[in-house]
Specification:
Elements: H1 2-19, H2 25-37, H3 49-65
C-alpha cells in the first residue's frame, strides 16, 4: 500500500511543478515517463507514451478507489439531480 501513496505523492509533485511552471518542456516528458516506469501497471508494454500515462493514471485511480469506503454518498443526493434511487 505504501507504493500507492508514493505514486500519488510523485504525481502530485509533478502536477505542482507543471502548475507553477517549474518544469521545462523537454524534461516534462522525461519526468512523466519516469513516473510511469516506476509503477507496476503493465503500461510499460505499450509503445505510445500517452497510452502508458493514461493506463498508469487509471491503475492508480483504481488502487486508491479500492481503499475508499463506498458506503456513503459523499453528500450526493440523487433526488436533487432528478434521479431516484430506483433509477440506479
Amino acid at each position: 500500500m505504501v507504493e500507492i501513496w508514493r505514486a500519488v505523492s510523485k504525481l502530485n509533485t509533478l502536477r505542482n511543478n507543471i502548475a507553477h511552471n517549474l518544469v521545462e518542456k523537454g524534461s516534462l516528458a522525461d519526468r512523466i515517463e519516469a513516473w510511469v516506469q516506476s509503477l507496476p501497471t503493465g503500461a510499460k508494454d505499450f509503445d505510445d507514451s500517452t497510452t502508458r500515462f493514461e493506463i498508469t493514471l487509471w491503475a492508480l485511480f483504481e488502487a486508491v478507489s479500492s481503499l475508499v469506503d463506498d458506503s456513503g454518498t459523499w453528500g450526493f443526493d440523487k433526488e436533487s439531480y432528478g434521479e431516484s434511487e430506483s433509477a440506479s
